[in-house]
Every structure is written in structure tokens, then in C-alpha cells.
Inverse folding.
């Protein structure tokens, strides 16, 4: 199929498998952009979920603005990408942070290492962040 907008099923499938890092974009207090790679997963409602430190640049930016953009792309032909802009919410509840840290760590590093990543990243000073989409651009097979 040639270049086309992804439907909802394609979009979710693309975001879930294969596992790819995302690039999170936020805005610094002085207006400059900030972009950083993140590991993520999707919650049942379709929000992008990831962990970050409360005092990281992205953590501070997200708490200040409540907005973010997330880009996930396939860098192999025929190339596809998803750009999500949305509202960001966060929690420092350690049970929730640890649960998501384990889930995300297991997604990227294998189920046998999930608890290791939950223990490593589910600690005080870490957040679990949800970016709920307000606008999505999802294009598949852009260079058939």
C-alpha cells in the first residue's frame, strides 16, 4: 500500500511493535525547544506513558507547561512515523511509578528484567508521565 494516513488500528500497532524509542519534545522556560529520547508504553486509553526524573529538563518543562510532543518513527524503508501532541499529566506515587517503570523496562529489555527496571527507576524523585493526544499525525509507507 502506498503512502497513507494510518487508521487507529495501524497507529496502535505501530506504537506497540516493534519496540522503538520515542523522542519527547518540550519547551524550556526561555522558549527554547528541548528534545530527548524516552522509552514508553501505551495505557488503555491510548496515552503515551513514560518515566522521567522530577528535576530533569523534561520533568521540569512538563510540570511547568503541561504540554508535549512525542515522535516515533521507523527509520527503515518504506518509512513511517507518528507525531503526537498533547497534554501531559504526571504522578509521583511510588506504586504507580514503579509499576510503569517495570512495565516499560520489560517492554524494552525483556520481561525477565522488568522487576530490575521497576526497582531501579521506581524510586523517589521519579515521575510517571502520561501524554494524552490532542492531535496526531500518523503516516505510513512514505517512500514506497
Amino acid at each position: 500500500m502506498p503512502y497513507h494516513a494510518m487508521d487507529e488500528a495501524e497507529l496502535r500497532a505501530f506504537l506497540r511493535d516493534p519496540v522503538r524509542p520515542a523522542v519527547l519534545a518540550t519547551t524550556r522556560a526561555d522558549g527554547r525547544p528541548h528534545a530527548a529520547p524516552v522509552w514508553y508504553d501505551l495505557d488503555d486509553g491510548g496515552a503515551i506513558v513514560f518515566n522521567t526524573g522530577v528535576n530533569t529538563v523534561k520533568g521540569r518543562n512538563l510540570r511547568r507547561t503541561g504540554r508535549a510532543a512525542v515522535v516515533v518513527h521507523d527509520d527503515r524503508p518504506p518509512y513511517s512515523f507518528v507525531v503526537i501532541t498533547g497534554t501531559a499529566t504526571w504522578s509521583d506515587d511510588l506504586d504507580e511509578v514503579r509499576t510503569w517503570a517495570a512495565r516499560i523496562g520489560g517492554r524494552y529489555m525483556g520481561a525477565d528484567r522488568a522487576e530490575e527496571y521497576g526497582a531501579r527507576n521506581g524510586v523517589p524523585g521519579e515521575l510517571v508521565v502520561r501524554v494524552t493526544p490532542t492531535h496526531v499525525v500518523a503516516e505510513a509507507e512514505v517512500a514506497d
